[in-house]
Amino acid sequence: VYITKFFFLFPYTITNDFMAPEYKKGTRVLITYLFQKDKLLIGDVVLVKLNSDSSVLLARIVARRGDRVSLRNKKLFRNGNQISEAEKVQFTDKRSPFAASFSKRDNLDEILIKEKTYFLLADNRDEGVDSRELGMISQDSIIGKVLF
Fold first, then answer.
1. In whole angstroms, what is the distance from residue 110 CA to residue 49 CA?
2. Using one digit for the tens of pLDDT, what is the confidence trace for 38-47?
3. DSSP 3-state assignment of 133?
4. In terms of DSSP bridges, do strands 56-63 and 45-49 run parallel, antiparallel, or are they unpaired?
């Protein structure tokens, strides 16, 4: 049990509401180290190491290498098609979408996702930190994948 818990899986307690409504603050999830970074799928929730001071981020993969991604009025588009996310995404800011000239949070020009990178978004789009601020995330920065 000890070997399984600390070498294959580890419990992680979510410290913010960036991934609400599915993963709210205080929710415990199991993270695995055992996955192929180049085989992650759209929809996978991953744990990313942000920098050398051990900050981490939990976010959902919404685009992979070769995909084109954009946001228009808070709606996600991948390869020119609007992606239905109604059951997973939460918006807490009831104001109309910000103009792209003001913020990339609600409107983002199309980006081509490069090799060995992913585009990640928080499920709570108005509060979360994700690729809109951080840019594309290198697969080398991904340290774990949420199992459940």
1. 25
2. 999 999 999 9
3. helix
4. antiparallel
